[in-house]
Amino acid sequence: MSAELLDGFFRLLAEAQRRLDDGFTGLPANPTPAMGEAVSAILSDVAVKLRDNYPYAHPLYAGQMLKPPHPIARAAYALAMSVNPNNHALDGGRASSAMEIEAVAALAKMFHWPQHLGHLTSGGTFANLEALWIAGQLAPGKAIAASDQAHYTHSRISGVLGLPFIAIPSDETGRIDLQALEDILQTEEIGTVVVTLGTTATGTVDPLDEILKLRQRHRFRIHVDAAYGGYFTLAGNLSPEARAAFDAVQQVDSIVIDPHKHGLQPYGCGSVLFRDPSVGRFYKHDSPYTYFSSKDLHLGEISLECSRAGASAVALWATQQLLPYTEGGIFARNLESSLTAALELHRRIVANPGFAAPIFPPELDIVFWTVRASTPALSSVFAQRVFEEAARRDLHLALAQLPVRFFSPACWRQAPQTETVTCLRSVLMKPEHLKWIDQIWERLTAASMSVAVNTALEPN
Known about the structure:
Aspartate Aminotransferase, domain 1, 2 domains, alpha/beta, seven-stranded mixed sheet, about 40% helix, four-stranded antiparallel sheet
């Protein structure tokens, strides 16, 4: 934030804090610890230490999935921290629990679910664990199946839950291979199929609409991992294939979405939703020492986690009031800008003879490519060098190991399809990235040219 915006931020926060404090004026005075010179010195030291970070909030940071929280989320979170609510039980956070229920209902409404059971979590990993735990309760001993491009935590979570896990090969577009999936479904070993709407590496959207057709022939649950891509259901510029997948979410059994990714929230704020509220019976437990102030539902009665930050719910609720989840609204248009930026960067990469682009365009806002060379190994070396050279130009990208089958066979004619290549990867999840695409491209091509020149000058 600029100094001017920061001043306004703290002024609004101070006004809100006074209004909150007014609600407790009937209590005897309770002095708070003094904020003296020692505190000032420590905070100054903290600020200096925090410089040892990449500039995550700046549009020239286009590497990992890091998006700055909206100022209203930061302010609401800070305001809630003066209460420090715990959303495990109403005793620990009446107001924040009510806000969580409303915020989760807004997520469910976004997917057109008329009813649901859900709550916020500390992140996508725990949200996916809860979804697969319920799957294991409903189909004990049955395997979990997911694409080999799904997040690695699904395999690890299955191990924690004592459930078999089967990785299904992906096709040349990065989506789960439907024929391979049906082959394994015929064994009747699969209890749940994880469908990813927005894979971590490439942003690929699995064909959920086609997988639902398989469910008509085989009995299994469908869990959607949309931790990264879920909010794109609001975007109006998805490809027809991605649109069909998102439109089918209404028919799945459970879904995970992370507001701390595209939802403009501080870490950690994930969520899990179940279409059938009756799965709440698996959470039932007795806790005589926490539930005493209300006969209403406590969120701790439908969650595996106990203590959870009520401030996360407050921040999400506040953000939703300012930026509601409506098609064509500001929130949705910002997502569309990110996708447009990704498509434009991909277009430029395809047109540049020095780069090798994948055979499929971005489906969300993640772009990947590598440097053209005679072998995948050499491409990998050059990609690493471009990554380092771009950082010297204040352009921060990421790297990913991906199958060569995602590229045209003409790129490396002798390379086996099982081989991998190091790719440059860019997550253009900030709405500002579209306006900065020219500067991103200038730095990227300059870095690539520098690597090419230095490589040509290297002794044989």
